Amino acid sequence: MTEDRLRIGVFGCGAIGSVICRAIDDGTIDADIVAICDRSPEVAHFTDSLASHPMVMGIAEMAKSVDIVVEAASQDAVRRIAPVVLSAGCDLMIMSVGALSDAELLDQLKGLARRNGCRIYIPSGAVAGIDGIKSAKLGGIESVVLTTRKPPSGFSGAPYVEEHGIDLSKLSEATVLFEGSAADAVKAFPANVNVAGTISLAGIGYEDTVVRVIADPGIARNVHQIEVRGKFGALTVRTENLPSPANPKTSYIAVLSAIATLKKLTEPVWVGT
Predict the structure, then answer these.
(1) pTM of the full structure
(2) Minimal CB count within 10 Å: which of 60, 115, 119, 268?
């Protein structure tokens, strides 16, 4: 490891975090995986499986030892660790972006980042078109609608499904599970619609972004369609993503987006808005 190489710490080594760690370890990302933090008893075995053998650290120690911490755990984890990381002057990449629907938390984190000279990175995740939405916002956006369609198994364990007693195994046709604001969607489906958070931050906010969630037994892919209208014209983007091999609730491209974001930080030329 040299002083000018990006030093990365990963918080959460589940389906997403473990893939990110391996991408750094195998050289896909030209950086060093210095530390990891995970409450699983298997974390020591995981570090041994990596050629770089990163240290297992608590979040406070990690934030002082790396250039950027990657959160790949949960919305609750964002609330717990983000203030610690940013207060240490360390950059932070957030995967569980739904946590930022809490306006008070978002303002707090922005303030900490400004005061401590660090940045918060949010990957595009499982959707395309984020650069277009950011540009359109400058000209004025009138409406944003996200329709997320996944196989029923992709919604298992979602608070909304459990609270409403929905038996996903009995669905025989496409069924609208939810329609409402992005603010409500990220609470109802915290592991399924993080894309709603990313779109909201890029566009017109959590309260004004409309989200429609559909369970469809007739598909094998996670489908996200974004429809944006405004003074710039209209934008429609549709992605059909294969689920992550490690977690059907997560689109594989969301994991690749995280890797691409870290890779971008190590490169001299940045492409895209």
Answers:
(1) 0.92
(2) 268
